[in-house]
Amino acid sequence: MDAGNVVGCMRTDTLDPTALRADFPILSREVNGHPFVYLDSGATSQKPRQVLDAERAFAERYTSAVHRGAHTVAGEATELFEDARARVAGFVGAQPDELVWTSNATEGINLIAYGMSNASVGRGGAAAERFRLGPGDELVVTEAEHHANLIPWQELAARTGATLRVIGLTDDGMLRLDQAAELIGPRTRVVAFAHVSNVLGGINPVAELVALAHEHGALVVLDACQSVPHLAVDLPALDVDFAVFSGHKMLGPTGVGALYGRAELLNALPPFLTGGSMITQVTLDGAEYLPAPQRFEAGTQRVSQAVALAAAVDYLDAVGMPAIEAHEEALGERLLAGLGELDGVRILGPGPGVSRVGLASVVVDGIHAHDVGQFLDDRGIAVRVGHHCAQPVHRRYGATASTRISTYLYNTADEVDAAVAAIADARVFFGVATEGAAR
Amino acid sequence: MSDLQNLYQQLILDHAREKHGYGLSGDEAASSHQFNPTCGDEVTVGVRTTPDGRVAGIGWEGHGCSISTASASLLSDLVDGVDRERLTASIAAFRELMHSKGALEGDEELLGDAVALAGVSKYVTRIKCAMLPWVALEDALRTSA
Questions:
Q1: What is the pLDDT of residue B144?
Q2: Which of A300, A365, B15, B23 falls 20 to 30 Å from A261 in CA-CA distance?
Q3: DSSP A138
Q4: What are the domain boundaries of chain B?
Q5: Domain B3-144 adopts which CATH fold?
Q6: Domain that holds residue A184
């Protein structure tokens, strides 16, 4: 299944978004009488024709049960499914047996948490000892986490008696590494944090946090949802123990994501969901489980979606992650500079000079984020408004909601400028600035 | 008038700023806190009653977008000196208006100036904002009955 030609780029370190846009049918539609300006890729990305075609081509030619049937098409489908795993694993530098398919990143984090929960009630035998939690053990997260990397750990702590500790943030949107060094200690069993915050956009110091965690034998769980789509990421090189990401944020379909784990850990972690196709022997009294990744893939899998996600990483590779990274860095700088010139607009997260991806969340004084978003939507500009599934970080910066502008490989400088201009005009429309004074 | 200007009529922007009825005394007969989990907006509506159980008025507190704030303000203007049955009818009429997808203009008899929110019904993502204080009042009326 060929990803097809990517028209916008010849695998150099630059890309031409205007040419790439031809691959994304939705980007040529109109919204409210304006060309569609999609600046909400941090929530979900658009999908190129190559990905849509891959999913359809699989369904039309290979639909059958993988890892079950003995007929020809089932065999072909299984091969494509496993080939997709190898390609997605390779995209993040991992081996195929280190990549578990999940529905999304949220399910991946829950899988780890529930696996540890199962270990804590004695499942998994001696091999699962290192996942066992009880009173006195500590789980460490950060104040910037998406709810998906917070609530599963709150619940795990509640079920096991472990304590949740939280690394705070500086006023300028950075992790407090001084506090991390104080919090992470001999009691720490897990350190879970986002590679890139979905609100603040700064790239977190993975190496420092991994070193702190591993010094005390704690496991590192990396939420890579906002990094894998936008940066060249080699998970084993980052030395994290587990990582999760979602397909739909990286040009792939919804319903598929991945959990990366070091093979040794995945084979020791008790399964979360149990059922068909994850076992070796089953009696009426119990079951033995397959090695990873199959031990975590109970039931019929999201097969065409996995195949399409492989087409998405092929597309990203064809464009080149370094080129995407550079493109978004330039868009991000333009965005920060433009927003920085507006009065009454506060940017959440680190300012210029700090490594960050091409997104910015802002609070516009005197205008609720929903109203800002409505004004932009009227011009066909799609952004995210609300708390972006991260209430604590908004509370930290004295906001209940913000407006997030997030870019991807298909966005242009003109689109970023249009969003900045619209925010300036929204201030006039809602009466918090006078005409001409806003920018 | 564009859809956007229709949504954000001057009356609505004024109410969002002026917030009629803002403030709770704590001695309300009943109150209800409503929360919109998608944006974090929240409102608490308290119902003041007369000794014989009639509704004397409402107060509210909370924070939200201009639509939910204006909606609470318009609602509090409407409530003064109105009996329960009529309030229940107003809430029903407002709900119907919000779900009309732009087809209704709203019954001014029952809704007063709150008919200015009719434009919200064209924006499916904003209906919840406008409904929030009305749902709170409905809930508070139930518990104060």
A1: 80
A2: A300
A3: E
A4: 3-144
A5: Sufe protein. Chain: A (3.90.1010)
A6: 55-317
Token pair listed for B83: 């009996």
Q: What is the mean pLDDT of chain B?
A: 92
CATH number at residue A336: 3.90.1150.10
The encoded tokens of residue A375 equal: 């004004």
- 8-state DSSP, B37: T
Kind of pairing between the strands at A37-38 and A381-382: parallel
Predicted pLDDT of residue A4: 47
Supply the pLDDT for residue A314: 98
pLDDT at B79 over 60: yes
Q: Which residues of A are catalytic?
A: 389
The one-letter amino acid code at A349 reads G
H or E segment at A288? strand A287-289
Alpha-carbon gap, residue A304 to A197, rounded angstroms: 30
**E strand or H helix at A91, and its extent?**
helix A72-91
User: pTM, whole model, 2 decimals?
Assistant: 0.93
Please identify, among A280, A295, A317, the residue that sits at the C-terminal boundary of a domain: A317
Tell me: do A215 and A237 sit in the same domain.
Answer: yes
Same domain, A413 and A387: yes
**Burial grade of A431 (CB within 10 A; 0-12, 13-18, 19 or more):** middle
H or E segment at A265? Answer: helix A263-266
Cβ distance of B41 and A401 shorter than 8 Å: yes
Chain A contact for B26 (CB, 8 A cutoff)? no
Q: Which of A416, A398, A430, A431 is nearest to A341 (CA)?
A: A416
Contact call for residues A132 and A106 (beta carbons, < 8 A): no
Q: Do A400 and B65 touch (CB under 8 A)?
A: no
> What's the burial of A121, exposed, middle or buried (CB within 10 Å: 0-12/13-18/19+)?
exposed
Query: Under DSSP, is residue A231 helix (H, G, I), strand (E, B) or coil?
Result: coil
Nearest alpha-carbon partner for A368 in B133, B12, B41, B36: B41
Best B4, B71, B128 member to test A by mutation, with max A CBs in 10 Å, is: B4
Q: Are residues A275 and A423 in the same domain?
A: no
B65 close contact with A: CB closer than 8 A: yes
Contacts of A23 (CB under 8 A, 6+ apart): A6, A7, A8, A48, A49, A50, A315
Give the up-direction half-sphere exposure of residue A99: CA atoms within 13 A in the CB hemisphere: 26
Yes or no: say if A205 and A175 are a contact pair by the CB < 8 Å rule. yes
Identify how many contiguous H helices and E strands chain A contains and give both numbers: 14, 17
- Chain B partners within 8 Å of A369 (Cβ): 39, 65
Peptide bond before residue A293 is cis, with ω within 30 degrees of 0:
yes
Rounded distance between C-alpha atoms, residue A243 and residue A111, angstroms: 11
CA distances (Å), origin B122, targets A219, A358, A380, B100, B129: 49, 32, 16, 8, 13
Per-residue pLDDT at A40 exceeds 90: yes
Q: Are residues A209 and A277 in the same domain?
A: yes
